[in-house]
């Protein structure tokens, strides 16, 4: 019997899984540390571009729920206009309804011109390298969610979802992002598939699929 047919809880308590987590953490530290040094010049350029776009803050810290329900704060380069959290003031009723359903909006009017570029290229997520380095995130894992989003969309499976560390990239993101929605159930299915089957081989597959998706611009908004 292979690991994919075993009880996930039993697999995650085994020595093989613990070894996988150790090497995964070592990879997270080394890769994020190297990337922070390598792209330090890009951080400065992007920070300046965001600041000059409208004079607002450079970074935005999102409160999310991490592994085992821990509150974490995820930094991103700010891609939205100031006061974007005031949803009722900035969205139409139809857009507000979509946000409450999917926690995202097609052609979001709150996104700045610089923000569109950052999101299309996924450069807005570069500051999350620091979250990986300090251990709040992993390179690969389910998307970090708001607590109410996780509870509303995953229901009785929320504990399973939060049994692994969220990641910068993941199985859902690598398979189309915006094209796999909560409403269809595909997003939940893909994220929970990763939780049940996470392994070195799957992580490597996700890295290469994500590189291809980013280069093609698939599903990014």
TrEMBL record:
Name of the molecule in the record: Sugar transferase
Organism: Candidatus Gallimonas gallistercoris
Membrane-traversing stretches: 29-50
InterPro entries, alphabetized: Bact_transf
Gene Ontology CC entries for this record: plasma membrane
Main location: membrane
Segments forming domain Bacterial sugar transferase: 24-215
Keywords: Cell membrane, Membrane, Transferase, Transmembrane, Transmembrane helix
PANTHER family in alphabetical order: COLANIC BIOSYNTHESIS UDP-GLUCOSE LIPID CARRIER TRANSFERASE (PTHR30576), UNDECAPRENYL-PHOSPHATE GALACTOSE PHOSPHOTRANSFERASE (PTHR30576:SF4)
Entry keyword Transport: no
């Amino acid at each position: 019997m292979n690991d994919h047919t075993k009880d996930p809880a039993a697999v995650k308590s085994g020595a093989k899984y613990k070894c996988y987590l150790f090497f995964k953490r070592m990879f997270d530290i080394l890769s994020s540390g190297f990337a922070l040094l390598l792209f330090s010049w890009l951080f400065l350029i992007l920070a300046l571009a965001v600041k000059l776009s409208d004079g607002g803050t450079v970074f935005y810290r999102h409160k999310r729920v991490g592994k085992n329900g821990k509150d974490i704060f995820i930094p991103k380069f700010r891609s939205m206009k100031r006061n974007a959290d005031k949803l009722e003031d900035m969205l139409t009723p139809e857009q507000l309804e979509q946000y409450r359903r999917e926690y995202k909006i097609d052609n979001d009017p709150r996104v700045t011109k610089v923000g569109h570029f950052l999101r299309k290229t996924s450069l807005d997520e570069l500051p999350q390298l620091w979250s990986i380095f300090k251990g709040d995130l992993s390179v690969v894992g389910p998307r970090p969610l708001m607590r109410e989003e996780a509870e509303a969309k995953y229901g009785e499976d929320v504990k399973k979802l939060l049994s692994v560390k969220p990641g910068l990239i993941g199985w859902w993101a690598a398979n189309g992002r915006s094209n796999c929605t909560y409403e269809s159930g595909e997003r939940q299915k893909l994220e929970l598939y990763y939780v049940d089957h996470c392994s070195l081989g799957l992580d490597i597959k996700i890295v290469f699929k994500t590189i291809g998706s980013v280069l093609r611009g698939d599903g990014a908004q």
